[in-house]
Specification:
- It is a single chain.
- The protein has about 400 residues and is α+β, with helices and mostly antiparallel strands.
- Strands 11, 12, 13, 16, 19, 21, 23 and 24 form an 8-stranded mixed sheet that branches. Strands 3, 4, 6, 7 and 8 form a 5-stranded antiparallel sheet that branches. It has a 4-stranded mixed sheet with strand order 1-9-2-5.
- The termini are far apart.
Length: about 400
């Protein structure tokens, strides 16, 4: 429950742009200006589709500009309403602009990926012709009037990101994904969207607000199609147990992740690095700080590798000492029970010593717990621990002496 509350706060924060409302029906406002990697477009190319009101009204013969720094390329839309730009250098940061009937349309800024092209759509007057599509032809409809899903591509895009928080020295990892279908009709991916969570993932679960199309069993995540146009939210969480001051997470995804975005709560000297990042920064939000790493599109099947260093890690020396002492106590008790032939007076004293030993051990355990919780400072902890150990040594010494004397008496 606590993790869910924290997740809700972060999702509603201003660390990233506000997440748009997620709809199951086509909504051009969700798609306009969003760059989507596509294998249908050659690498180093960008295709910009320009429409008016809705996706059925292409705007032809209209200029579209592609801005990359001080350089501006201009192409007119063809009969399909598409302006095409070729020969772009991978890694170049660009964005598309068109002015239609005095309305300035502008895409998000993005980097040209090295292994695929980019499709995007600009919609003029997004709310103007909402009903016109209903009167369009019935191509693509089944006899019952429902749109028949066709094979197609989806990506993890939009506001997709990985978010990491701390629970003492354990990690809580959240995958906040959007499965984006940039088309105008439902599609079914050619291969199933199935992937494995990182090694060591524990208690994986789908979060409230996620699409019912997502499910998780053990470490296996499955997201079933078909996918409607626009965004389908997939949100999940899992834990990772303590593993020292440094840890590397590696995750392969079944479709393109665009762009790469990873957030981690800034605690102490925590640092984050990844070969997929081309920028990283510290971002404040509501009195807290986060590390944000971003990068260009990650091709399907490529491992996103994130290394966290300086992780909070608690020393387990005290606990190990307590466990070792407990084992010694148990062993001494077993040996004493098997060999004890004491007289009634001596048995009474040994009983007192056993009680004293148990109380000291209980005090030792409580002291360790208080120290781990921060209720006892280091100086007080060290002094008290030394006192308890000294008393235990005296108890064990007397127990050993009484055991030896008793044995000699029996031998006589």
């Amino acid at each position: 429950m606590i993790a869910k509350v924290r997740l809700t706060v972060l999702v509603l924060g201003v660390v990233l742009a506000a997440v748009p409302a997620l709809a199951q029906m086509p909504d051009v406002r969700q798609m306009t200006g969003v760059p989507m990697p596509s294998s249908d477009v050659a690498a180093g190319s960008v295709t910009v589709r320009l429409v008016r009101g809705d996706l059925s009204n292409n705007i032809t013969g209209h200029p579209v500009e592609l801005h990359g720094g001080v350089k501006v390329l201009t192409e007119n839309t063809n009969t399909e309403g598409r302006a095409q730009f070729f020969g772009l250098s991978p890694g170049t940061s660009v964005h598309a602009i068109a002015v239609v009937d005095g309305e300035r349309l502008e895409s998000r800024e993005f980097e040209v990926p090295p292994t695929s092209g980019i499709k995007l759509i600009l919609v003029a007057g997004a709310g103007a012709g909402a009903g016109s599509a209903a009167g369009a032809g019935t191509g693509g409809l089944s006899a019952a009037g429902a749109v028949t899903p066709a094979p197609g591509e989806v990506v993890f895009g939009g506001q997709s990101r990985i978010q990491i928080e701390f629970n003492d020295d354990s990690l809580e990892v959240f995958y906040l994904l959007e499965v984006v279908n940039p088309g105008v009709a439902p599609v079914t991916p050619r291969s199933e969207l199935v992937f494995e969570l990182p090694e060591g993932a524990q208690q994986a679960a789908i979060l409230e607000g996620s699409s019912p199309q997502a499910s998780v069993r053990g470490r296996t995540v499955a997201i079933t199609g078909p996918f409607n146009p626009g965004s389908t939210p997939v949100q999940m969480a899992f834990g990772l147990g303590p593993a020292g001051a440094e840890r590397t997470l590696s995750q392969k995804l079944p479709v393109v992740l665009f762009p790469v975005q990873v957030m981690v709560t800034q605690v102490g000297g925590v640092r984050m690095a990844s070969p997929q990042f081309n920028s990283s920064s510290e971002v404040p939000n509501d009195g807290r700080s986060f590390l944000l790493g971003t990068g260009p599109a990650l091709p399907a099947g490529t491992a996103l590798s994130v290394t966290l260093s300086g992780l909070p890690a608690r020393s387990r020396t005290g606990r190990n000492v307590a466990l070792a002492l407990a084992c010694l106590v148990l062993a001494a008790g077993v040996i004493g029970a098997l060999s004890s032939r004491e007289a009634s007076g001596d048995a009474g004293r040994r009983h007192q010593l056993h009680d004293r030993r148990e109380k000291l051990m209980a005090a030792m355990v409580r002291l360790e717990q208080q120290h781990r919780a921060g209720a006892v400072d280091e100086a007080r902890f060290a002094v008290r621990r030394s006192e308890l150990l000294a008393q235990l040594e005296r108890v064990y010494g007397e127990l050993d002496q009484r055991g030896g004397s008793l044995g000699q008496g029996q031998a006589a």
